[in-house]
Amino acid sequence: MSMVEITDAGPESRSDLESLKRAWHLAGPLKRQVSLGVLYRFLQSMMLGLGFGVVVLVVTGLADGRPLSTGWIWQTCALMALSLAGQMLFGYLSVRASWLSSYEMAGHLRLRILEKLRHLPLGFHQARHRGDTVTVLTSDMQMLESFFSDGLPRIAQALGLPTAIFLVLLARDPLLALATAVSAVVALPVFLTTSRQLSKLGIRRQDMQARAGARMIEFVQGMGVIRAFNHMAQGQQGFRRAIDDFRDISIRMVVQLALPMALFGMIVMLGAPLVIWVIGGRLDTIGTGSAVTALLLLFSMYAPLLALLGVMEAVRMADASLIRMDRILAAPDLPEPADARPRGSEVRFEKVDFCYRPGQKVLKDISFTVPERSMTAIVGPSGSGKSTILNLIPRFWDVEAGRITIGGADVARIGEAGLSDLVTVVFQQVYLFSGTIRDNIAAGRPGASQAEIEEAARAAQAHEFITRLPRGYETEAGEGGTALSGGERQRISIARAILKDAPIVLMDEATAAIDPTNERAIQTALARLVEGRTLIVVAHKLSTIRSADQILVLEDGGIVERGRHEALLAQEGLYARLWSHRARAAGWQIGG
Description:
By secondary structure, the chain is α/β, with parallel strands linked by helices. It is about 65% helix and about 10% strand. The chain has helices spanning about 15-25, 30-65, 70-120, 120-125, 130-170, 175-220, 225-230, 230-270, 270-330, 385-390, 415-420, 435-440, 450-460, 465-470, 485-500, 515-530, 540-545, 565-570, 575-585, and strands at about 345-355, 360-370, 375-380, 400-405, 410, 425, 505-510, 535-540, 550-555, 560-565.
């Protein structure tokens, strides 16, 4: 059975007390409301216990021959009415406080996780399955909601009734009350051990569910390729394996916990013969009334404790979800001092080393300068580190050694907002957000007016095709921009970049995979975008390379040649060979 290794770091299990402390910490400002929900459920259970106590007092009173006086009847009815009213009142207050606080807390926590994800390096996201983060924000969050809205109050409910009954017994006969509590105390270590074991399996179960989600997303998003190459069976097989893993761990959880859970229930119920033995030995002392009271209340006391076994799985699943959330919340952010102020838009690399995995350098001792308002083209074989250089400038990752500066300021000290204002990125793979075309362009500068949006679209050669659409700028782009063609998506992204108006433009040749008709429009749009700006481009087109002020030639993560086009050709090195290959490829034709 093929299984993907879990790469997330995090604690594999923790005690129930640690779990409750962590859940309590996450409640944040809602702690008071959560506490009230638990307290109200406990009081509701106590009110139920009061009803039990009243019934027992009536039964034992009759057994002792107590006459049915009017005062006793009214007193009994009043206590029963109080019990019922208390159950209804505290039940309503508990549901209201618990459900409202659980939804509000989940909303705050989702926003907190999303904010955290925004500050994490891209390496963190790329090391995780796409479905893993989605599962944290959906299934794991639902587990947590269920814990705060139902699981935690049910624990209070399971403890409230036994507490009330124990107090009734304690008032009548302390020794008998202690006898009823012995089995529960003895069973407690079994409960805690079983709970910790369930915690370990719960984390693995949630991870398996995340894998299944990732496989499902991969299967759906790759449906076009799967159908084109008739790989439907292979695509389904990967998803089926993930589902089978999830099923197997769920079955294993049930099988491994069946015996200890049964053992816990058996130990609790052994309190019944113990109480009967104590009653038998002290019947003359305690009297028939107390004996009947104890026997009537005994199973009402144990039943809620056994119900804790049903709550246990929900509690441990919630704890597993908390641990998976902690893997995100505890991940280190990219440091952001934000105390440097750039002077200009010159970009400089100073002896930069970088690796995606420890010990495997992708860039080695990279040093170069891109003067303000100039164009630098980066060329080289596939895998030489071209795109990595672009990704380091907006600080998608931090360098291993050396530094990168913009206007003399280290990018690591500029701050996220300041760096975003300085740099705009246009890549081949354009991603548009779900929403209208106007929203996607306006993402370049939130708050831009309709006139500014349309001006940017005209400059990007996009206004004409947008106005031909049925709803114009209010047309939905679709998830990822699926409602538009590749050339249209690219022009929308360029309009977004023009609206942003950043002084530095990074571009992974935007026209490399575009048809000639769209290419002319995009080239015109790009000329408008880079006008008067500092441009760094990973170049594939011969025309782009030829017009660069500076060309950097990369091989195996290092710069092996640099200069202008004519000078590099004269060297007859790697650049000359790449140019020759691309020139020949440009003249290829299909047919005679």
